[in-house]
User: Fold this.
Amino acid sequence: MGLGMRNSVDLAVKQANEQNLVPGWTFVLDAEDDQASADAGKNAATKLAADDEVIGVVGPLNSSVGQSVAPIYNSANIVLISPANTNPSLTKGSDLANPKRQWESYFRTCTTDDVQGPFAAKYAFGAGLTSAATIHDKKTYGQGLVEHFTEGFTADGGTITTAETINPDDKDFSAVISKVKATNPKFVYYGGEYPQAGPLSQQMKAAGLNVPLFGGDGIYDPKYISLAGATSTGDLATSVGAPAAQLPGAAAFVDAYKKAGYSEEYGAYGPYAYDAARAIIKAAAESLKNASSPREARTAEIKAVGQVSFDGTTGKVAFDQYGDAKTRILTVYKVENGTWVPEKTDDFQTGSGSSASASSSASPSASAAS
Assistant:
């Protein structure tokens, strides 16, 4: 996932330079790997924040890393746009009934768990999956996703048969599967990412727990199907946005990504990383106009990013007063014939019916010096 994000930012940077989108400036990509670790993320953020040439950062993948690095970038007045952080507290704080923006420089192009969880719940209950066991990996993303799913599912009339957890490095899930199987759920809702979700699904079916595993965008990846095997047919995942084929701007991105020859797939979050980078670059066209250096333009860049509005790869790219993406479109996917197939796409903001990790910075430098 992280490598697909990095490549997508790289593509946006190369296109910006080729098209001379910000005259007099050349964008340079500096990719850092946070290793899905808060400590490694802090080290990378500290390094980038100290670089006078950095004007904006795309990333990180994990919400837990986002919590650790957002204050660092905010203190340095550096725009941070995550294509994948879905925990709502990053923008609104822990009290969602009384939201308060946490960091002025933090934005995201993805939809949050307080939307994604209830969206999955409503789909499942409507499909006749009226009882669920929940499992999460104790990480910020997984726990938050399960909490919001549970709230929505029980409100819709669903029953949670048991709520279990696993450790982030577990490989043998026999104990938790035994507990879940005894409660006879119609499906298992999992909060976490595909490296564990795939083997969990495979081991569930091998143990006779022949019900769908349903997860969030953290499992929506071709590698999940490879890990889960043939018995993953019928498993479900939600992902932010509509399928690429349904988005007017996506075809050009997919074509350009393929032509660029990247060895990794762009993945669930690649298009959102691409749009995040484009938002930084579009804002830089304003913030760098009268600046002698990227550092001098940082405060203006934050304001300019907050005002961007354009048709992106993932749909309309714009941010609300908290820094969240205004778009609330999500899709449910089902595994069929060894691939993810879209089942339902909806705009959930009215309630109607994207492992390696990378943080990538776009660093403008004077074009004469490049």
The chain has two domains: 2-111+243-328+356-369, 113-240. The chain has twelve helices and 14 strands. The longest helix spans residues 270-287. The radius of gyration is 20 Å.
